[in-house]
Amino acid sequence: MEVYLDNAQSLPLDEGHWHDRLETLMRFEGMPENAQVSVTFVDDAAIHELNREHRGVDRPTDVLSFPQFEGDEKPPEGIPYVLGDLVVSVETARRQAVEYGHTEEREITFLLVHGFLHLLGYDHETPEEESEMRQQQRILLERLGSER
Questions:
Q1: Distances (CA, A) of 120 to 33, 69, 93
Q2: What is the average pLDDT across 124-128?
Q3: What residues contact residue 53 under an 8 Å CB cut-off, 6+ apart?
């Protein structure tokens, strides 16, 4: 499994820690050894621009997911299984951690789990989808030791 991290913002971040968290998350979800995911940590200005460009929403957000495949689609045999890209605003994560009364570590972990599940095809457009996604988030957060 490959986890590619890019800290493209100015706040300090333990990249090794987040690499390990993502790799553990991939193992929990049974990803194949050739699975790859990319994570970029950004500031609010960068995620605002991406959110406007890709979703038509003119404000910053906490996490964006850009899946490589739709639905049950998978790469051909022998090709790396690139799950997609996650973009996390560390600025927003810090604010939300204070707002929700938990640590920055817990908030970033939640955002990574949430975004990762979107890469796997989970969504929250309907009440049923939201319930399923929330349940899977809870399971993964508990396994990572970061339950809410």
A1: 16, 9, 22
A2: 90
A3: none
